[in-house]
């Protein structure tokens, strides 16, 4: 690194690196075009700190704790405590306050758990940077970048730090995050004036901006807080809020319910006073008890924790959720649109056959291993005797950035799989690239579907080599290389037949072409390749399907989800692979190509999209049209993507799915879900998880609401009929609290029901609780509430004192809820099965905890003082247990009737 005296000089260069020559910037940073050594980088990292923007300070602990007191229930509790104080009932006052604190504490702990779960997820999505260290290009965590590092960016990358460009190829960067300018800015390495504004610094890359097209190399000049974005500190936060439409709906529901409860409490007090002549303290007690009983205070926290735990479990299964909402949406997905290469297939490419005008060649060998031969009619084909083959492998090998390295006896690919296959083909054919130098390149983009290089041979010969999608190259060719190595007119029909033939075998087809460069020019533009190419030949590449993806597609079909393949490959290849993978069946398969799609009217596409499952020759911009067409027919769409141009389609789809390995930062940021393993099977699993989590939410809500229903019913009935109160407010608080900390969390851990992937997708418009669920809630409220009232008045009639009758009532409530928990483990399926005892250990831990707490309530003397409870005998336990079993069985009978009604209807 630079030392003492040089600093001032270096400082002035680094104050405005955009105005300095590249070499001066390197010198000022003590770096070179070969990048830093890892030692120097580590030392610099220790000096300047990680390349990270300061995170916004968290709200202080006291404020976060206090925020949990901003809740309707807590207000009711605090008001109740106040009333108790006025009435001089200090024990109740203390208990109610204690419960308020415990409640807030539970909320605080739950929120912490949920936040930690989500934090862990966002850490999985850390940004990486492509950097040159110790002379080799590697990938490091973007946080480890330091000034002086040489970085490489390509379309779709988020720029990891502020950097001075050294070299660019068609580089365009979307700097809207920084400058507000929505059109991508063209970038080049030439200097600009020292006083140029951020938006005019064409030779700089700025941290946080997005590479829209092309590639570039740049030397890092500022990291972390020293970057432009760090200075204006607009933070791009990736941590998702704990809020989703569902939590908002439920929160709103909670508020409306609270109002209703207050209104009912007032009615109750008025009737109690006017009709039954209760005393004011009695009515206050009843009103407090009723309010506390009726407010479903655990609901929002329950939903949040269920979602957050679900997200965590999904991440363990390789599906990283960026937005909590996706968990809800995943369960209603009706169509999954998937890329082919790497998602449905393994993306391990091997060239199998070569077609030139001079012959058909077979290629042996597997994977990226270089052992194998190129043969014609089973005899080795030498390059000297086959000019077409020679021209083809020369093009495919030189217009190529991949290589293979041997490690531990296996060949490993460095670079893109398609290019790897073509590189290995060159090695097998005996092509030696030594002596060739690349003078210029037009990089591959999925929009153009080709790549070209200007190469100079050792003898000074110059040639432009082009490889890419066959149709793109055919359209640009005017001649072809003949069997003897001479140029002849292009026979498009011949090549189209050959392309179809290779495609029908499920092979990915790439074409090679070449042209003479403009004399005296050492640069290459896309426009140089628009016409006049000489077509050389074709290569057919296998890319085996992922076996687990084949199974996942079958599972999707059973689950009522349609799978569509969207690929840049040739239609023949697409159909062959789609058939192999079980996406389509039979002979009459409809395919839509990108071209047909473009020519089509909106209505026609809207009609066709739902029934066509294979899309070939598409470009990223076609995806958005497909998504819109499907959505216009009411489909809920999950769409995968990896390239920068896929981002709009991912945003448009209900569930955008980005590839974690292959995907660009732009796609990941647009996506709801990121697949850590790029695998289609993971999408299917995510859908399954989504359905499971939604089920669990319904189960939890279905469990929780009757709890409140039963308790409030007990008090309401007692007051309306002028009877003694079966539950004191503090006792209601007790039941609420113990079931809140034990039972209500058990269902968030419930496993998937055996038929989750055997039912059709959920209608996204259906409310989380339908009429059937509301009927169930009413029934269970009446059952548990009725049983509680029943045992209380029966005990009183049998001569037991108030305390023990109330204790029996509390026990009835607790056991009734426990029994009902087992009903709720399966939404529709019968719980009268041994399975109800298996599969969720948390249910048992909650059961044990509930029973222990209840024993404390009944038998601990201090509880008798605080909660007015009393010891009860075997008779009471027996009755309450028996009634709990009856409740369980009646609910099961109701479930069975509902099942039958649905099947009949
Ligand atoms: P999917 O099948 O999921 O759409 P894809 O790999 O086909 O993925 P792209 O990578 O955009 O999508 O490739 C589109 C087409 O471009 C390929 O079918 C192939 O013909 C051509 N192609 C792919 N990679 C290269 C490359 N490195 N150089 C030149 N042409 C390429």
TrEMBL record:
UniProt entry keywords in alphabetical sequence: ATP-binding, Membrane, Nucleotide-binding, Translocase, Transmembrane, Transmembrane helix
Tagged with keyword Lipid biosynthesis: no
The reaction(s) this protein catalyses: ATP + H2O = ADP + phosphate + H(+)
Database matches in PANTHER family: CALCIUM-TRANSPORTING ATPASE
Pfam families: Cation_ATPase, Cation_ATPase_C, Cation_ATPase_N, E1-E2_ATPase
Localization per Swiss-Prot or TrEMBL: Cell membrane
InterPro entries the UniProt entry points to: ATPase_P-typ_cation-transptr_C, ATPase_P-typ_cation-transptr_N, ATPase_P-typ_cyto_dom_N, ATPase_P-typ_P_site, ATPase_P-typ_TM_dom_sf, ATPase_P-typ_transduc_dom_A_sf, ATPase_P-type_domA, HAD-like_sf
This protein's record includes keyword Transmembrane: yes
Regions that span the bilayer: 93-109, 257-275, 287-311, 701-725, 731-752, 773-794, 800-822, 842-862, 877-898
Organism, as annotated: Agromyces larvae
Membrane topology: Multi-pass membrane protein
Protein name, entry field: HAD-IC family P-type ATPase
Residues of the Cation-transporting P-type ATPase N-terminal domain: 16-89
């Amino acid at each position: 690194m630079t030392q003492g005296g040089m600093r001032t000089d270096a400082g002035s260069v680094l104050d405005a690196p955009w105005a300095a020559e590249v070499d001066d910037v390197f010198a000022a940073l003590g770096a070179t075009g070969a990048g830093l050594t890892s030692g120097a980088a580590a030392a610099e990292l220790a000096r300047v700190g990680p390349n990270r923007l300061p995170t916004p300070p968290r709200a202080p602990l006291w404020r976060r704790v206090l925020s949990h007191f901003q809740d309707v229930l807590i207000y009711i509790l605090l008001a109740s405590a106040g009333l108790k104080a006025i009435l001089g009932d200090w024990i109740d006052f203390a208990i109610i306050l204690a419960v308020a604190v415990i409640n807030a504490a539970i909320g605080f702990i739950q929120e912490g758990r949920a936040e930690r779960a989500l934090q862990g997820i966002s850490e999985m999505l850390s940004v990486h940077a492509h950097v040159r260290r110790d002379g080799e290009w590697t990938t490091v965590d973007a946080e480890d970048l330091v000034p002086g590092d040489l970085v490489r960016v390509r379309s779709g990358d988020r720029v990891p730090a502020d950097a001075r460009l050294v070299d660019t190829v068609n580089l365009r960067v979307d700097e809207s995050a920084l400058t507000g300018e929505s059109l991508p800015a063209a970038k080049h390495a030439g200097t600009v004036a020292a006083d140029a504004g951020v938006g005019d610094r064409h030779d700089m890359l700025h941290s946080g901006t997005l590479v829209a097209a092309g590639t570039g190399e740049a030397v890092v000049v500022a990291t972390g807080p020293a970057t432009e974005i760090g200075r204006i500190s607009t933070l791009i936060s990736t941590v998702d809020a704990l809020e989703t439409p569902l939590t908002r709906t439920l929160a709103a529901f909670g508020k409306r319910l609270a109002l209703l409860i207050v209104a009912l409490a007032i009615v109750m007090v008025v009737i109690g006073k006017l009709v039954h002549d209760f005393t004011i303290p009695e009515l206050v007690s009843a009103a407090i008890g009723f309010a506390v009983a009726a407010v479903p205070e655990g609901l929002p926290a329950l939903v949040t924790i269920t979602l957050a735990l679900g997200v965590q479990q999904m991440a363990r299964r390789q599906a990283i959720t960026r937005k909590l909402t996706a968990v809800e949406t995943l369960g209603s997905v009706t169509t999954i649109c998937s890329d082919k290469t790497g998602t449905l297939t393994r993306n391990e490419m091997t060239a199998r056959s070569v077609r030139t005008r001079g012959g058909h060649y077979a290629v042996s060998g597997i994977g990226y291993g270089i052992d194998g031969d190129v043969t014609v009619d089973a005899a080795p084909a030498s390059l000297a005797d086959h000019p077409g083959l020679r021209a083809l492998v020369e093009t495919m090998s030189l217009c190529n950035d991949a290589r293979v390295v041997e490690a531990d006896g296996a060949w490993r690919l460095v670079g893109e799989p398609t290019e790897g296959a073509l590189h290995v083909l060159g090695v097998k054919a005996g092509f030696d690239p030594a002596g060739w130098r690349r003078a210029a390149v037009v990089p591959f983009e999925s929009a153009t579907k080709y790549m070209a290089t200007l190469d100079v041979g050792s003898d000074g010969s110059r040639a432009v080599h082009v490889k890419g999608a066959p149709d793109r190259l055919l359209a640009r060719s005017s001649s072809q290389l003949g069997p003897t190595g001479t140029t002849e007119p292009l026979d498009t029909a011949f090549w189209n037949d050959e392309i179809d033939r290779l495609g029908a075998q499920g092979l990915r087809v790439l074409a090679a072409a070449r042209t003479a460069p403009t004399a005296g020019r050492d640069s290459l533009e896309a426009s140089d390749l628009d016409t006049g190419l000489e077509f050389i030949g074709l290569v057919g590449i296998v890319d085996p399907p992922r076996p687990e993806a084949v199974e996942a597609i079958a599972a999707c079909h059973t689950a009522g989800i349609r799978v569509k393949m969207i690929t840049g490959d040739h239609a023949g290849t697409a159909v062959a692979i789609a058939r192999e993978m079980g996406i389509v069946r039979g002979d009459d398969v409809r395919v839509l190509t990108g071209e047909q799609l473009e020519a089509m009217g909106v209505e026609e596409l809207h009609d066709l999209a739902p029934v066509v499952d294979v899309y070939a020759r598409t470009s990223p911009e076609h995806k958005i049209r497909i998504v819109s067409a499907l959505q216009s027919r009411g489909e809920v769409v999950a769409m995968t993507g990896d390239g920068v141009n896929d981002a709009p389609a991912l945003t448009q789809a209900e569930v955008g799915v980005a590839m974690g390995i292959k995907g660009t930062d732009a796609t990941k940021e647009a996506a709801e879900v990121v697949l850590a393993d790029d695998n289609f099977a993971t999408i299917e699993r995510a859908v399954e998880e989504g359905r499971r989590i939604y089920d669990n939410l319904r189960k939890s809500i279905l469990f929780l609401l009757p709890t409140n229903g039963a308790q409030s019913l007990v008090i309401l009935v007692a007051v309306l009929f002028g009877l003694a109160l079966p539950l004191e407010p503090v006792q209601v608080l007790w039941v609420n609290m113990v079931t809140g900390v034990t039972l209500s969390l058990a269902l968030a851990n419930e496993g998937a029901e055996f038929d989750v992937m055997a039912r059709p997708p959920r209608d996204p418009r259906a409310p989380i609780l339908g009429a059937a669920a509301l009927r169930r809630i009413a029934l269970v409220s009446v059952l548990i509430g009725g049983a509680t009232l029943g045992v209380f008045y029966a005990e009183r009639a049998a001569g037991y004192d108030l305390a023990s009758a109330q204790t029996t009532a509390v026990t009835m409530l607790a056991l009734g809820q426990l029994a009902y928990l087992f009903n709720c483990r399966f939404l529709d399926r019968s719980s009268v099965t041994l399975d109800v005892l298996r599969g969720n250990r948390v249910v048992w831990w909650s059961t044990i905890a509930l029973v222990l707490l209840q024993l404390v309530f009944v038998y601990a003397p201090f509880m008798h003082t605080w909660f007015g409870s009393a010891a009860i005998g075997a008779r009471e336990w027996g009755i309450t247990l028996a009634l709990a079993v009856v409740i369980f069985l009646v609910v099961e009978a109701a479930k069975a009737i509902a099942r039958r009604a649905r099947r009949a209807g």
